[in-house]
Amino acid sequence: MKRVFMLPNFIIVGAPKAGTTSLYHYLSEHPQVFMSEPKEVNFFSKDEIEEQGLYYQDFKAKDLDSYEKLFDKGIDKKAVGEGSVSYLFYPETPAKIKALLPAVKIIMLLRDPVARGYSHYLMDYRLGLVDVPYKEIVLKTSTHKNAHLYYQQYVELGLYYEQVKRYLELFGKEQVKIYFQEDLRQDTQKIIFDLYEFLEIDPSNIPNIEREHNAFSMPKSNVVHKLYTSYFIRTLLSVVFPEALKEKIKNELFERKKKPALEENLREQLLDIYRQDIQNLESFLNKDLSVWYEEITNA
């Protein structure tokens, strides 16, 4: 039998640590939606990640054939998607997506960049991917060989203006939907229904919005920590287990913890980096984002 090829008709492109995992799981519950396993395949950003020698090096599709195979089971679904959050940052990625998927719908979820970057750092610290103090990364005083990559991941990824602009100018407003984590937390159901309308799927299906996905947690023991910081173990889990099962395993081995507070003076220094970019984004989107740079929020 001739194989029928399937490609996504929507992509969640980022930002990292902004709630995209929750969106992924909410959409996965809808009977008309197929989401890739795993969530992040990094197909359109793999060249940049490899060229940089980025410490993640996490690819689930290295060529078009393997990318297409990820969506084989979605042939009977109305909405087929993936959620590689690396796609938002790299300048070349939108054009690559457009060349292969000109009609694809783009979904973005943005978060206060100070909180986003610190949350990203804490996640990588927990995974054993970084052992440099956050302050040294932000102030560029670290001599670690990956210091420039850490700065990119925890600071530059939060400079959203140019990233958002690239997608809107290339795909147009009709194909791009932008949400904010603050709105998702305040009225999850409203955002979900708006997303359903954007994807043209049945709005009567309501996902389990009470469950928080990818919340801050720490290993329950040193043994778990050592296992989880192993690149081999993480890769094995990523390849072998589906997203839902991985989340169950994580919930059993990790426990919710209160995040360590971000130093106030460091937050102010980060705001100095982000303020103009946020204001540029405000003007471009015609949306008030002053809460990001005027109020003191918990990172």
From TrEMBL:
<dbReference type="Pfam" id="PF00685">
    <property type="entry name" value="Sulfotransfer_1"/>
</dbReference>
<dbReference type="InterPro" id="IPR000863">
    <property type="entry name" value="Sulfotransferase_dom"/>
</dbReference>
<keyword id="KW-0808">Transferase</keyword>
<dbReference type="GO" id="GO:0008146">
    <property type="term" value="F:sulfotransferase activity"/>
</dbReference>
<feature type="domain" description="Sulfotransferase">
    <location>
        <begin position="8"/>
        <end position="279"/>
    </location>
</feature>
<dbReference type="InterPro" id="IPR027417">
    <property type="entry name" value="P-loop_NTPase"/>
</dbReference>
<keyword id="KW-0325">Glycoprotein</keyword>
<dbReference type="InterPro" id="IPR037359">
    <property type="entry name" value="NST/OST"/>
</dbReference>
<protein>
    <recommendedName>
        <fullName>Sulfotransferase domain-containing protein</fullName>
    </recommendedName>
</protein>
